[in-house]
Write a structure and sequence with these properties.
Distance between the termini: 53 Å
Order of helices and strands: HHHHHHHHHHHHHHHHHHHHH
Shape: globular
Mean pLDDT: 83
Oligomer: single chain
Strand content: under 5%
Number of helices: 21
Number of domains: 2
Largest sheet: none
Radius of gyration: 24 Å
Length: about 500
């Protein structure tokens, strides 16, 4: 037995030595050495990206399971809950875990844990107050949300405990403590998927079962983090912290709320004006759209540091030359997502959900306009025009509600995808016009080449109109996919150059 163990050990050692001496092995060893020499912030950024990717990946991979276990009505009920959850999260947390929280951690760096716990207490107070409101006005709330009083109370506990996770996560990120954050985010994603599948399999009302399974996971992990924050914060709060946070975040609340209305209110209105089943079908297209948003936000996140640095150094030429190829790379990625819409829908859902494919093009195009909003919004923030950003997002949100009411009634729930695209476009257009005005005042010219932005925007809007018509013409669709592939091959050197420049 001992000889067998030695033989196995020698065999593994020999195989590893051979692998490390090979060309591939040297590359792997080089990557490991590069990782070891990375700074702590660089390692933290890498692992936060990997964790976010896996978290979104688990949610996306589990979607086909849920769509095959749940009816369109049940899937719609769950997504309606998620839409209301996102809106009430803004109202009850005041988005204290956003930019103001990072600024507060810097301002009160000698008592970061105490500051985080004070923020947690604000959310707890607003949450408990809302529970009282739910018991008093439960009937009215149910009429407009189509959610029972019990679900609303459970949602509130989810918001309180999820808030604790958010404050803890940002607090850990601030000091680049990435290991625990990545572990907790992956644990949440795995448990949400596994517990959700079990609940749906054995639950009578599968929509309600999915809602409660999601709440239970968040509350369970969130309660543990809440207790950790409680003891790390020395079980005390300071009025100064609370006053600062409220003064910073309340003026930004319309901006945060408008973003969520623009993102989520279409499902709420579909449920109200059409049916929960229609919400379920439409939500599957939104799930695919979220993948596109992850890609565009990742590109945006990589580009923002370069953008701010160039703005600060007045190096406008570099900003201009970098963004143009990025726009066309993004165009190619989004067009491929749109072109493969029918195949994606076949994987994500059963035939009951296939109608949602017609909402994929406008939702995917909306992700690009969201990228433009972030791109030019950063310029407005750089010049201190926060109010303008809030006004533009509020205009888009109110317009979205009005257009949804008119066109969903006229053309059905697929129209919600197009109204969302139009409102994102208007929001982006306002940001572009105002940002150009600011940069012209500062430099005498526009920061970006607007003709390329216009070309990409028109191509994506055209794709939003044309692809739903040609989805049933496979030969034409595959010809377009092949053309995009050939263009990418021809421009591969330029694409690699852009990726390398942004990596630097």
């Amino acid at each position: 037995m001992f000889c067998m163990f030695l033989l196995v050990r020698l065999s593994i050692h020999h195989s590893l030595s051979y692998l490390l001496q090979s060309k591939e092995g040297k590359r792997i060893n080089k990557l490991f050495n590069r990782y070891r020499t990375m700074s702590l912030p660089a390692k933290a950024t890498l692992w936060f990206f990997i964790g976010n990717l896996f978290q979104k990946g688990i949610a996306f991979i589990s979607t086909p399971i849920f769509t095959r276990l749940m009816s369109t009505n049940d899937f719609g009920a769950y997504n309606l809950y998620l839409s209301w959850l996102s809106i009430f999260t803004v109202l009850l947390t005041l988005r204290l875990d956003y930019g103001g929280f990072n600024k507060g951690l810097t301002k009160y760096k000698d008592d970061k844990d105490g500051f985080a716990f004070s923020m947690q207490l604000i959310v707890t107070a607003t949450g408990l107050l809302f529970i009282v409101v739910c018991f008093i006005f439960g009937g009215i709330i149910n009429k407009y949300t189509h959610l029972s009083r019990l679900i609303m109370v459970a949602m509130t506990f989810e918001i309180i405990t999820t808030g604790a996770i958010s404050f803890w996560t940002v607090r850990e990120r601030y000091d680049f403590k990435y290991k625990n954050v990545v572990f907790v985010s992956l644990l949440l994603a795995f448990l949400n998927a596994i517990v959700g599948i079990i609940a749906v399999l054995y639950g009578r009302n599968k929509g309600t079962a999915r809602i409660y399974s999601s709440i239970s996971v968040q509350v369970l992990i969130g309660t543990v983090i809440y207790i950790v924050n409680f003891f790390k914060g020395h079980k005390t709060w300071r009025k100064e912290y609370i006053t600062y946070a409220l003064a910073f975040n309340i003026p930004l609340l319309p901006h945060y709320l408008s973003d969520y209305i623009l993102d989520s209110f279409d499902k709420i209105m579909i449920s109200s004006l059409v049916s929960q089943s229609a919400t379920g079908i439409y939500s599957l297209a939104s799930s695919l759209g979220m993948v596109v948003k992850v890609v565009t936000s990742s590109i945006s996140g990589a580009y923002v540091p370069l953008q701010y640095r160039c703005l600060d150094e007045k190096n406008y030429k570099k900003v201009r030359t970098q963004i143009t190829p990025i726009l066309y790379i993004m165009l190619g990625i989004i067009l491929l997502f749109i072109a493969f819409g029918p195949e994606a829908m076949m994987v994500l859902g059963s035939s009951d959900y296939f109608e949602s494919v017609y909402a994929v093009p406008p939702i995917a195009a909306s992700a690009f306009f969201g990228f433009l909003i972030a791109l030019f919004g950063n310029i407005l923030l750089y010049f201190g025009k926060n109010v303008a950003l809030t006004v533009f997002s509020c205009i888009a949100a109110f317009l979205n509600v009005g257009l949804n009411y008119v066109f969903i009634n006229m053309f059905g729930f697929i129209a919600a995808g197009y109204t969302t695209m139009v409102c994102y476009f208007i929001d982006a257009l306002c940001a572009i016009v105002y940002a150009n005005k600011l940069t012209k005042r500062d430099t005498g010219e526009s920061l970006y080449e607007n003709k390329h932005i216009l070309i990409v925007s028109l191509l994506l809007v055209s794709a939003g109109v044309i692809f739903p018509i040609i989805y049933n013409h496979t030969a034409i669709r595959y010809s377009i996919i092949l053309s995009i592939g050939i263009i990418c091959i021809c421009l591969r050197k330029e694409i690699v150059k852009v990726i390398k420049d942004n990596k630097k």
